[in-house]
Design goal:
The complex is a heterodimer of chains A (439) and B (284). Chain A has 439 residues and is of the alpha+beta class. Chain A has 9 helices and 22 strands. The longest helix of chain A is centred in the N-terminal third of the chain and has 30 residues. Chain B contains 10 helices and no strands. Chain B is globular. In chain B, helix 2 runs antiparallel to helix 3, helix 3 packs across helix 7 and helix 7 crosses helix 10. The chains are: A alpha+beta (439), B mainly alpha (284). At the A-B interface, helix 2, strand 8, strand 11 and helix 8 of A face helix 8 and helix 9 of B. Bound molecules: protoporphyrin IX containing FE. Protoporphyrin IX containing FE sits at the interface of chains A and B.
């Protein structure tokens, strides 16, 4: 678009200001994304991804969406969009807010065109303005050299549709980037009654900066009367310097957010609550079914796990095992309230069934930017497709020809012509109608 | 819940299947022998089918007491509803019936898929996992229905366009051929554009509401699973259509091909991902 494409900077600018570049980039993004659904991805299918030949792994094909060159591609697309938007801003602004009425008849649209005549020029002019305003047009007019020229625009904010759409895409990508660089992602599997410092949850990405406690008050696997699962519920408290600062019963689809950290109910596992006595000390211990966790009796090398459980609500039965390092030294079965002595000064009592809750814990500082981008994206598309601008322009000679004043007017056709003709015809019909009344 | 509602739902389903099959055949017949009465009957059958389709959906809603948008069978019912409802709207609004010959086969084939590939256990509403209990899922499927419905219409228009123009260039005697009921190709082209212009924002809203739902349910708004990725690819194809049309004046033949390819991508997102790619997305 620029004439002085001599310097390297101008050349690069030209490349990035071209929509052709944009379409090519979009095409590559689509292609690469498609390839990513054929090659197993580390994030979704770790074993499959591991089985892929090394060369593809090195090139990032098994982690395609997080690979640097995919992000580079998105970066180029964003630069492209920004450059295009910068370049188009002035034009869209002028078109929307400082439109120029046509100077000559030849500048009027020809395809959708009509003429209205009247004996009273001033009245026709007034009527034209009135009709257009009534129909929601914003009229810009100019009177000079014996002619009255106007341009009228309806839905002029529609001109901003593609601009807003493009910028919002960039915002989305920025939000996603911030989310991938900052924040953390973790998982907490905890039993009823447990209190876990947020710093100690299992982290798969990023770092936890805050410092508070997560208390699991209760866990429920709620079943409806018809036997279907309603949801998993966790009554969760956040404790900061000894005080409860937030509490909510969360369930799948109903998370809790505290200080930007969100707790999502992700899974549930049955477990049991035990009262363990070791050397005169009592400990409440919650063990997860299937050996998900263990209890190391203080001052010993003994590890207690619960290897199986019959989760009958009335009569739960559990199977426990005790290991010395890796060697099993004891195992047995306990019903509700039953006590078993493991060693001198070490006994366990099965007190009740107690659920384990699996929580996805996440801090994503970019997520609000993503929602902002999504909102603007929708706004831009609504403006583009449901708020189409219509532009009508006209010229009336202020000198009479043949006893009559003549108003020539036409509607601009854009990317979209259906409906514009009808709209234009209704304007003309109204002008003519009024005209007859004034005659 | 007595079994009678379930039985009524099944009856509705089969009325819908029969009506859409009959409608498709009548549209074809109407195109071949050009009798208005046959075209009217075809429209009538489509309306009956739509009513039965609505009945099946409402009954399922009453039986399960939640929006019936949670398994493959229910999605196909909504998908068909979207296509036929938008098709009938277009037929009444723009008054051309030849389009039915190219749109009605789509719900017809979708239903054949249910009849032949889905056993009774896949059709009943089973227990749903807690993740599917979300308002956002309802919005998500509702917008998908509108978007996919309108894309299906643009697909039919694209095919009509290609047939019409190839017949024109073959210099056949188009006056009294079966093509004479086709509207002018520019009308086909522009209407296809109008459909895509309606559907593209809907598809975007569908993707956005899906992301919101995923974020509530799993704490990730986008995880690049194949279904999400293919919806993005579909989105890019239609975005390319819009840009190419606007800037390079890609109308007519090339636009028609893009409308067809776009809808193939829609179908692939809907079915291919579940049946052709290594399975991941568990809920159809
Ligand atoms: C990221 C995906 C993109 C989306 C969703 C998008 C969306 C849109 C939409 C909705 C329009 C209006 C189309 C219409 O009214 O028919 C548009 C127009 C346009 N787009 Fe994009 N676009 C994207 C990428 C790009 C890229 C990469 C470029 C190149 C720099 C670009 C350049 C343009 C231009 C120049 C127009 C013309 C606007 C006009 O004259 O009205 N777009 N875009």
């Amino acid at each position: 678009m620029s004439n002085k494409s001599d310097g390297i900077v101008e050349k690069i600018w030209d490349i990035f200001s071209s929509m052709k570049t944009g379409l090519v980039l979009l095409g590559i993004v689509a292609l690469v994304s498609g390839i990513g659904t054929l090659v197993p991805q580390v994030s979704l299918d770790p074993e499959g991804a591991d089985a892929v030949a090394d060369i593809w792994k090195t090139l990032g094909f098994t982690n395609i969406y997080a690979s640097p060159w995919f992000q580079f591609l998105l970066g180029l697309l964003c630069i492209n969009l920004i450059v295009c938007s910068v370049q188009r801003f002035g034009g869209i602004y002028k078109l929307s807010f400082q439109p120029k009425p046509p100077q000559e008849h030849s500048a009027l649209p020809q395809k959708i065109y009509s003429q209205v005549t009247s004996k009273d020029g001033e009245a026709l002019k007034q009527r034209t303005q009135k009709v257009l305003k009534k129909k929601g047009y914003y009229v810009t007019q100019l009177e000079k050299e014996g002619s009255w020229n106007f341009i009228a625009q309806k839905h002029r904010l529609g001109n901003w549709g593609s601009f807003v759409t493009h910028i919002s895409f960039v915002i989305l990508v920025i939000g996603a980037l911030i989310g991938s660089l900052g924040g953390f992602k973790g998982y907490l599997m905890a039993g009823e009654g447990s209190v876990t410092p947020i710093q100690q949850i299992e982290i798969s990405k990023g770092q936890v900066k805050d410092d508070f406690m997560v208390k699991i008050n209760s866990v429920e696997d709620r079943i409806l009367p018809n036997g279907e699962r309603d949801n998993w519920y966790t009554d969760l408290s956040i404790i900061e310097s000894g005080e409860e600062v937030a509490r909510k019963s969360i369930s799948v689809n109903h998370p809790l957010t505290y200080k930007g950290i969100t707790f999502y109910q992700a899974s549930y596992a049955p477990g049991g609550l035990f009262n363990v006595k070791v050397k005169g000390e009592e400990y409440p211990v919650v063990l997860q079914n299937g050996g998900g966790n263990f209890f190391n009796a203080p001052g010993t090398n003994l590890f207690l796990v619960m290897s199986a459980m019959k989760t009958d609500p009335q009569e739960p039965v559990i199977l426990y095992q005790v290991f010395d390092e890796t060697k099993q030294v004891k195992m047995g079965q306990l019903t509700l309230g039953q006590t078993e002595t493991i060693q001198d000064d070490y006994s366990i009592t099965f007190e009740k069934a107690a659920g384990f809750t699996g929580l996805q814990v996440k801090e994503d500082p970019g997520v609000w930017i993503v929602w902002l981008g999504s909102g603007l994206l929708m706004l831009g598309l609504l403006l583009s497709f449901y708020w189409r601008p219509v532009r009508v322009a006209g010229i009336m000679n202020l000198e009479k020809d043949h006893e009559e004043y003549e108003l020539a007017l036409g509607a601009f056709t854009g990317k979209f012509n259906m409906g514009i003709k009808e709209e234009f015809d209704s304007i003309v019909a109204e002008l003519k109608d009024v005209n007859q009344v004034t005659k | 819940m007595g079994g009678s509602l379930e039985n009524l739902e099944i009856v509705m389903f089969y009325i819908m299947v029969i009506a859409f099959v009959v409608s498709t055949v009548l549209y074809w017949l109407g195109m071949a022998i050009k009798k208005d009465i046959i075209n009217h009957l075809a429209t009538f059958a489509a309306i009956i089918g739509l009513i039965a389709n609505t009945g099946a959906i409402v009954l399922r809603w009453v039986i399960t007491q939640r929006p019936p948008l949670t398994n493959g069978y229910e999605f196909i019912l909504t998908f068909c509803w979207g296509i036929v409802a938008i098709y009938l709207f277009v037929e009444f609004r723009y008054k051309f019936k030849a389009l039915g010959s190219f749109v009605m086969p789509v719900p017809f084939l979708l239903l054949m898929f249910i009849v032949m590939k889905m056993g009774p256990t896949e059709r009943v509403s089973g227990a749903i996992p807690p993740a599917l209990k979300s308002q956002w899922l309802t919005f998500h499927v509702f917008t998908a229905m509108l978007a996919y419905g309108a894309f299906a219409i643009s697909f039919g228009l694209g095919i009509m366009y290609l047939i019409k123009t190839s017949a024109n260039t073959n210099e056949k005697n188009t006056k009294d051929s079966w093509l004479s009921h086709f509207p002018h190709e520019n009308v086909l082209d522009e209407l296809a554009y109008k459909m895509i212009g309606f559907a593209f924002p809907m598809l975007t809203l569908c993707i956005v509401t899906g992301a919101i739902w995923a974020n509530y349910a799993w704490g990730t708004y986008w995880s690049w699973d194949p279904k999400e990725t293919w919806s993005l690819i579909t989105w890019i194809i239609y975005a390319a259509y819009l840009h190419a049309r606007l800037m390079y004046g890609w109308k007519g033949k090339r636009a028609a091909w893009m409308a067809i390819i776009g809808f193939v991508a829609v179908l692939f997102t809907f079915f291919g991902v579940n049946y052709l790619l290594p399975g991941l997305h568990s809920y159809a």
